[in-house]
Each structure stands twice: as structure tokens, then as C-alpha cells.
Amino acid sequence: MADTALQMGIVGAYMVIALAVGAVAYRLTDRTAEDYYLASRTLGTVVLLFTTFATLLSAFTFFGGPNLAFSAGPEWILVMGLMDGIIFAVLWYVLGYKQWLVGKRHGYVTLGEMLGDRFGSTALRVVVAGVSLVWLFPYVMLQQKGAGQAIVGLTNGAVPFWVGAGGITLFMILYVALSGMRGVAWTDTLQGLFMLSLIWVAVAWVLSAVGGAGEATALLAAEEPAFVGLGGGLYTPQYIISTAVSIAFGVTMFPQINQRFFAAGSKKVLKRTFALWPVLVLLLFVPAFMLGAWAAGLGITVPEGGNVIPALLGEYTPTWFTALVIAGAMAAMMSSSDSMLLSGSSYLTRDLYRPLTGRSDASDESTDRREALVARVGVIVFATLSFIASLYSPGTLVQIGETAFSGFAQLTLPVALALYWQGTTRSGMYAGVIGSQVFYGLHVFPVLSTLGGLVGLNIGLPAAYLGWTPGIVGILVGLMLTVAVSLVTAPAATENHTVYAVSGVESD
């Protein structure tokens, strides 16, 4: 009982500190949409790097990934640590830099605004926002599910799953309603530094207890010999490449990440951050996933539905340190969730509420107040529904995360074509965005196949295509549809090809 109180006290204290940072940021935040959603486009190198980093630190990172390394070997490091560190850094420059230039000139806050303006289409703006909110839902649910599992594992079941999941949901609602991008970015920076430090201390503590990295690896080789060589685990080259590309492409289109492309203070900030990104990724993913893999050789028993990191730390570190790491992991989940809900609220108000109610993009005081209310109500409803879904979702953290990543990934190549190819047409964008989403959705939502059967359509789709996942095939489908339809259709009269002309705005 005393241990449980100590553990929950540490987790609670950390959440209070994060909330206090948000309160300070709230006092310094202007009551404008640009400042609330993008911190007035003033983020510097350290804050932009760590807010992007911390926003991606999620239950998928600290529980899902190590769990997979524990069950199938550490080759997952190739997916997240190496390939995604590099692929996303390249996309950050290729897409993020161009978005920053365009956003700086035209004042865009969301991806939907940018695309809707370029193609003169309110409907495209709504479609992009709707697709993004659909895939945001399972990823927010992932954080709540991870929080519930973390609390159960930390307290050995003394605190039930719904308390952990419900606690982080309530915190998210309070925090997002209180602070905007500035508070989120500041808190993310502290959380990223805190978690990065803790994970290395955890590695040092565990390895010192078992006799060093050499001994831990020898035990792993004796227990799971297939885990210590490339190609010996459960992974295939197609799976590794498919997953790495889907995750990197998906991250690029995450609303909370995509909006950070608009928030950089200068060109130099963007260039420094994407150059440092692969280093930061390796510093986190290598120790986290190796802890999961080493645990397989140390005889760690993971409770059903539990996670390997809390079980490993519970075996080799004091109760207070385990609680501190779990607090850090929950901070990672919160840093993802608060950014998701903040970005989701901007998509809801600017890309759905405004067009569907006939509101103008030009704001006045009464419009701002009305939209603020819509955004806060939307956050409460969205977070509550995802919490309820987390209580009943049967999928693992990895499955939920991969589903959301691949859903967002379908947007990447149509957006890239829109940014760089003047020949892209509105019809081509519709075909690429909607076509790839339908293709991928038929593979991951069984209900769609069931509905097809009810109307006489026999939709029998394979789980993989010569080893390649439906997510990666869907990305190619989106590319081909966008190009093919654009080649055979003429631009609409309302399309604005000068929107992405960015000469004269590249200065720092």
C-alpha cells in the first residue's frame, strides 16, 4: 500500500509540474489563433527539436516498441532508430521546409488551409481534415491505453486500468484548454530531456545489476539465439521497409507534427533541427528497445496485457525509480496527446467548423470566442470518446500505432506532388487522397468488407502483397492515382497556382 502511494505520488507530482508550466505559458500567450496554435511561428532550434521529439514519444515508443523487441528481437531498432530517423529527416527538409515557406507567406495554420487555398476547394479542405481526425482518433486512444497499462503494471494491479486511462484523459482536457502551442512546446522540451536522461539511467542501472552489456547480450543469445543476428527474428525485409516507410511518411502527415513545420522561427532553425533529428532518435530508441530485448534473456515475466519495461525495472531497480520512469513515460504520452488534441482542435475549427457553417477565414472577436468554445467542446468530446474506445480496444499498442501511422502515410505523396508539381489538379488530389484511403481502409476495417458483402460485393483482400503491407501499397496507389488523374484533367477555374510561389520569403 505504501509503495502504491509513493508511485502514484511521483506520477501525480510530475503531472502537476507539467500543468504549472502550461499555466505560465497561458499567461504569455496572445489571444490569437496564430499564437495559440503555432506560438506565432517563433520556435527556436532547441524547442522545435524537442517539441517534435517529445510529441513522437508515446506509448508506442516506450511500451509497444520494447514489447516487440522482447517478443521478436531488437531488429525493430532498424525500423524506428535508423530508417525512420533518416527518412523523416529527409521528409522534414523536402516537405517541411516548403510548407514553412508557403505558410510564412500566406499565414496558414493547417494542412487543409494550405491545400484548400492552392486548389480553390473547400471540399478538399474538409476531406483532408476529416481523414486526419479519423486517424488521430486511434493514436490518441493509444496514449490512453498505454497510460492505463502503465499504471496497472506499476502498481501490480492495485490501481485499475480505467483510472490510469481516465487520469491522462482528464489531464489532457485540462492542459489543452489551458495552454496553446507555446505551453505545449515548453513542456515537451522538459519532458523530452527528462525522458531521454531517465532511459539512459535505466540502462545503466539494469546493466550494472546483471554484469554489463556483454553479459546481458550473452544471456540473450543463450535464451533467444535468433535475436542476436540480422534476419534471425520474426521480421522480413519487406516488413521492415514497409513499416519504416509507413511510419516516417505517417509522422510527416501527423497534424501535430505537420503544424510544427509552420511554427519554426527561421530557415536556419528548420535546417538545424532536421540535421539533429537522426541523432536524437538513436539516443532514445536504441536504449529503449535494447532494454526490451535484453529482458528476453533475463527471464523477465510480463503479465498478460502488461508491458516489459515496468516489469524489467521492477526486478532490477528500486520502487521509486520505476515510478519515476513510468512518470516519464506517461509524460511522453501526455506530450503526444496534448499536441494531438491541440492540432485536432485547429483542424476541427478552421477546416470543418468554418467551411461547414459558412464562416469566413477572417476572424473578429465574436468569431474567435465562438471558435474557442467549439474547439474546447471538440477536445472534450474527442478525448472522452477515445477514452471509452481504449477500454474496449482489443489491439496491442503496436497494432494500434501501425494502423494510425499507415493511415496518415496515405496523404504524404499527394501532398508532396501538390507542393512541387504544378501539373497536380484538384481532381488528381481527390483521386489520390480518397482512393488511397479507401484502399487502405478496406484492409484495416473489416466492417467495410462486411458492408460490401451486404450489397453483393465480394471484397476479399490479401493481408500482404508479396510480403509488402497494405499501407505501403496504398501509398503507391495514392501516387499513381494523383499523377494519372492530374494528367488527364484540366485545372479548375478556382485553382491558384501562385499560392506556392515562395520567392522572397526565404530569408531568416
By oligomeric state, this entry counts as: single chain
- In the CATH scheme, the class of the largest domain would be Mainly Alpha
Tally the helices. 21
Let me know the average pLDDT: 79
End-to-end separation? 56 Å
Shape: globular
- The poorly predicted ranges are 450-458
Structure explained in plain terms:
This protein is an all-alpha fold and 508 residues long. It has 2 domains: 1-357 and 370-396, Sodium/glucose cotransporter (Up-down Bundle); 421-492, no CATH class. Helix content is 77%, strand content 0%. The chain contains 21 helices and no strands. α11 packs across α17. The chain starts with a helix and ends in a 20-residue tail after the last helix. Residues 450-458 have low confidence and may be disordered.
Features:
Sodium/glucose cotransporter, about 500 residues, mainly alpha, 2 domains
Topology, please?
Blueprint: H1 2-28, H2 33-38, H3 45-56, H4 59-72, H5 76-106, H6 111-119, H7 122-154, H8 161-178, H9 181-210, H10 213-223, H11 237-253, H12 255-263, H13 267-297, H14 308-316, H15 319-357, H16 365-392, H17 397-409, H18 412-420, H19 426-444, H20 446-454, H21 470-488
Helix pairs in contact: 1-8, 1-9, 1-15, 3-9, 3-12, 3-13, 3-15, 4-13, 5-11, 5-12, 5-13, 6-7, 7-8, 7-15, 7-16, 7-17, 7-19, 8-15, 8-16, 9-13, 9-15, 10-13, 11-17, 15-16, 18-21, 19-20, 19-21
